[in-house]
Amino acid sequence: MAVLSTRLSRWSLPMFACALVNLLAAQGLILAGITWPAQPVSAPGTLAAVHLLAIGWLLLLMLGALFQFVPVITSRPLVSQSMAFAALIALEIGLLGMVGGFFGIGAGSAPLAMALPAGGAAVFLGVMIACWNIGVPLLRARPLSLPGRMVLCGLAFLLLTVTLGLSFALALTAPAPERYLAPLLGGVGDHALAGLGGWFTLTAMGVSYKLLPMFMLAPEDRGIAGDAVHILATVGFALAVGAGLARLWSAAEPLAVAEFTGYAAITLAVIIYLWDIVRIYRTRKRTVIEAHNRTAVAAFGFLGLGAALAIGSLVAGRLGAGAPVIVFLIVFGWLGGLGLTQLYKIIPFLTWLQRYGSSLGRGAVPRVQDLVRERRSYPWFALYFLAVLLGAASVLSGHAAGFRPCVALVTVATFGIAIEYLRAWRAHYAQLRHIEAAAPPLRPNQRG
Ligand code: HEM
Q1: Is residue 317 part of a domain?
Q2: DSSP one-letter code for 55
Q3: For residue 169, which atom of ligand 1 is closest to its CA?
Q4: pLDDT score of 377
Q5: How many domains does the chain have?
Q6: How far is the CA of 20 from the centre of ligand 1 (A)?
Q7: Rounded distance, CA 265 to CA 233, Å?
Q8: What distance in angstroms lies between residue 199's CA and the mean position of ligand 1's atoms?
């Protein structure tokens, strides 16, 4: 497998650790009652939590995964390992500034509020570094595989998202550019769609097109279905976001049509993608599905649920009102859920690669699966997904008071899952002798 011939991404595991801390911090803000639904969507606490989740959790998670897998997709190394470290530092420092800035605006403190654009600028820098590190091998790869093309398009949306975010930050805090940038503030929905859709969803789809077939031994060539998902999703998000932004300045009818066409294309892309994912599971050669791919089924379900709710709200003319629950389902159910489930394979895999990657063929080595105890993880994943579902249901049914207890359960489950990661990682040190004694000798092609 190509992963073996690839160097270990040195900063991916530290990035995942930081990402999990940020996720728990965001859950802490929700539990403290200073975010939606206890507070307005535009409250400083909500904005801080949203960005702890978007940048601190999902962006670090995605970049950590891409730093390892882009060299696999492209058969080319990253520009440099140190750039991954620089991106991590810039993103974490920037995020801290942004969180301080949101609370500064809320408290009416002008100096603290300036931390928002300053932090946003550091995040922008971190994203540029990461895009360079990942983008160069992607642009040089010939031919570029479907996952690679999807990641490349995702990166363009990421740049658009952070550019819009930085413009908002300037419009909210800096007097001079405010006059020119103020109309942009109407485009918060487009900023969210570019980030959660164009960047995260498109990239997660691309990465899953590599990871699922790789770990389930299913055909990697997705044929016309894969191309349709890529093109429809890319064009759909571009149309919806582009026309949505243009409508801030013009009421021209064709822009509304373009925006609606974009939503239709995204819907079609999601339907084809979910159908194709079912095909991957059905045509796999590996009979036993591992825990990370069993539990990922729930995340795919949340993508379908979030998309269905978005379409329903759009048709009913209530997209604005429904947006917070849709964002919650997409962030916690689809993207966060997929991230948590896939980390359950990626962390042991990187730990294994670190320890045994260079000694393959030179004696007995345990399997990646020997670093985890799958049965122990299922209750945590079940609790996580169930609590996310109940949290969304409580708000949708008008019982918003039930939301925080559900998030408390989500937090407990996140802790449980994080401890399982830690155990897999520590197996590298603590249980090594036990694992090595228990593991049957393997031939190099028997990992998994
Ligand atoms: C992957 C990156 C990002 C994603 C997915 C994202 C997502 C979002 C979402 C969903 C909202 C709406 C939140 C709400 O209404 O409660 C929002 C608002 C906002 N974002 Fe981001 N964001 C990202 C990056 C950034 C960056 C780098 C900045 C720079 C400072 C930024 C600045 C803002 C600001 C200032 C608002 C509020 C605008 C207003 O209240 O008018 N975002 N973002």
Answers
A1: no
A2: I
A3: 35
A4: 97
A5: 1
A6: 20
A7: 6
A8: 13
pLDDT one-digit tens code per residue, 13-36: 999 999 999 999 999 999 999 999
Q: For residues 344-351, give the mean pLDDT.
A: 94
CA–CA separation, 289 and 133 (whole Å): 33
> Domain range holding 119?
1-144
How much distance in Å is there from the Cα of 414 to the middle of ligand 1?
24
Task: State which of 50, 102, 178, 335 you would mutate to test the pocket of ligand 1, scoring each by most atoms of that ligand within 8 A of its C-beta.
Answer: 50
Q: Rounded to two decimals, what is the model's pTM?
A: 0.94
Is residue 411 included in any domain, yes or no? Answer: no
Query: Mean pLDDT throughout 309-337?
Result: 97
Name the amino acid, one letter, at 292: H
Residue matched to tokens 């100096």: 111
CB 65 within 8 A of CB 12: yes
Q: Is residue 339 part of a domain?
A: no
> pLDDT tens-digit profile of 367-377?
888 888 999 99
pLDDT category at 441 given cuts 50, 70, 90 is very low
**CB-count burial class (<10 Å; 0-12, 13-18, 19+) for 91:** buried
First to last CA, the chain: 11
Q: How many angstroms separate the alpha carbon of residue 342 from the centre of ligand 1?
A: 26
List, for residues 68-101, the tens digit of each pLDDT value: 999 999 999 999 999 999 999 999 999 999 999 9
The verdict on residue 150 lying in a domain is no
Nearest residue CA, atom 11 of ligand 1? 192
Residue type, 126: G
Q: Is the peptide bond before 405 cis (omega within 30 degrees of 0)?
A: no
Q: Work out which ligand 1 atom sits closest to the CA atom of 58.
A: 1
- Ligand 1: list residues with CB < 6 Å: 41-42, 46-47, 50-51, 54-55, 59, 98, 116, 120, 123, 161-162, 165-166, 168-169, 172, 185, 188, 191-192, 195-196, 199, 327
Q: Are 240 and 263 in contact (CB under 8 A)?
A: yes
With the C-alpha atoms ordered 103, 106, 111, 116, is the resulting torsion angle positive or negative? Answer: positive
Q: Relative to the CA of 123, which ligand 1 atom is closest?
A: 27
